TrEMBL record:
CDD domains: KdgK (cd01166). It comes from the Bacteria. Residues 30-301 form the Carbohydrate kinase PfkB domain. The keyword Transferase applies. Keywords: Kinase, Transferase. One of its GO terms (molecular function) is kinase activity. It comes from Paractinoplanes pyxinae. This is Sugar kinase.
Length: 318
């Protein structure tokens, strides 16, 4: 095993409205956040991982901390005595999730600064994984992320970034400006087709394998050595050091699509941390994403290593 992964970002408590749409009785409290989803996914796949953040000094923050730690993730998150832990509300219709509302303005995580970044954890890691959600939370989190990247670059730690664009947090124009500053310092970039087009400030094309490859080529000119495009049910592709790789996804019955992208990233990074080839990274990412959508929840269905089926070599095309 290697030094594993360090990650930084907000995780919120989660309330789920029952299928009848009525919140009349106390609802079970869950939690979710892109970076902690990835951290849990990595831990279940046997990779050491540290999650850094800021939580409210409240019952919801204690719940988030306890749940993430219970998954074997090292938690480094200060307790904010003033600001609360963020909250999201998931609504269901016909037995499946159909809308998520976020209550995160003024949350503890929105008050993150570089003081919440543990430099030693980043130096010890092989990969620093970040998402585009953190800089969207405000100036402090943006500063924290910039500092984390600075530490990683100085230590030779690979910098991984998932675009994870949230239009409820900021506009496309704001995001484009920030990503233009970030990409030269990023080694590994993850994006969906629409996210890649947004970063480039281009209209979304037809997608598919050819469209994804074109987007990856354009993004690679901005700095990342490897660009991974997530193509949903089709699979995924990567342009790494000028070589294009593709991996087809297995067909799955989708129960809840939330968390599929995070599961994909966890699967990809788990192989990368062990020195695996790009095609194997893609295939494992596809498998992990495919497993998590078959059960409700953002992270509950994240697979353990033994659950990932053996990839048929013919399904992976270079």
């Amino acid at each position: 095993m290697t030094g594993g992964v360090a990650t930084l970002g907000e995780t919120m408590a989660l309330l789920s409205v029952p299928a009848n749409g009525m919140l009349r009785e106390p609802a079970p409290v869950g939690m979710g956040g892109a970076e902690s989803n990835v951290a849990i996914g990595l831990s279940r796949l046997g990779v050491p991982v540290t999650w850094m953040s800021r939580l409210g000094d409240d019952a919801l923050g204690a719940h988030v901390r306890r749940e993430i730690r219970a998954e074997g993730v090292r938690v480094l998150a200060a307790r904010d005595a003033v600001a609360p832990t963020g909250l999201m509300l998931k609504e269901h219709r016909n037995g499946t999730p159909n809308r998520v509302r976020y209550y995160r303005a003024g949350s503890a995580a929105s008050r993150m600064t570089e003081a919440d970044v543990d430099a030693d954890a980043i130096v010890a890691a092989d990969v620093l994984h970040l998402t585009g959600i953190t800089p969207a939370l405000g100036a402090g989190p943006r500063q924290a992320m910039a500092y984390a990247i600075e530490v990683a670059r100085g230590a030779g730690t690979l910098v991984s970034l998932d675009v994870n664009h949230r239009r409820t947090l900021w506009s496309d124009a704001e995001a484009q400006a920030v990503f233009a500053e970030l990409l030269p310092s990023v080694d590994l970039l993850f994006a969906g087709v629409s996210e890649a087009a947004m970063v480039l400030g281009a209209p979304e094309g037809p997608g598919g394998w050819d469209g994804g490859a074109e987007l990856a080529a354009k993004l690679s000119t901005a700095g990342p050595r490897t660009v991974v495009i997530k193509l949903g049910p089709l699979g995924s592709l990567a342009l790494a050091e000028g070589t294009l790789f593709r991996a087809f996804a297995e067909r799955r019955a989708v129960v809840d699509p939330v968390g599929a992208g995070d599961a994909f990233v966890a699967g990809y990074l788990s192989v990368l941390c062990r020195g695996g080839a790009v095609d194997r990274c893609l295939a494992t990412g596809n498998q992990a994403g495919g497993v998590v959508v078959t059960v409700p929840g953002d992270w509950e269905g994240l697979p353990f290593a033994g659950e990932l089926s053996q990839v048929i070599e013919d399904e992976v095309i270079r």
